Amino acid sequence: MVDTKNSSKKSIFVRDYLAEYRTDLANKRTFLAYIRTALAVFAGGLALIKFFGHPIYVILGTALVVVSLLILVQGLITYHKMKQVTRAEDEKIRKFEAQGQ
Length: 101
Prior knowledge:
Layout: H1 4-51, H2 55-100
Helix pairs in contact: 1-2
């Protein structure tokens, strides 16, 4: 005879664990996208500075380098905020599961 109550608890636990894992992976993918974007903008800014001597291009290149640093900082902030949110939710789920048993 199959214990359906215990089986359903186990499937909910696995589902929640996998959802948490997917969320963590999505957060990391988003952070890597921020890094990739920042590197591309940074490289574009350096190319403008290095290959064109006109002052307008130097100013534009410098602005792109600064923007790339801002993109990277924004990515770090977003990553850490999302990580804190997922940790807090994980703590709530663990407390709820501990009370239910």
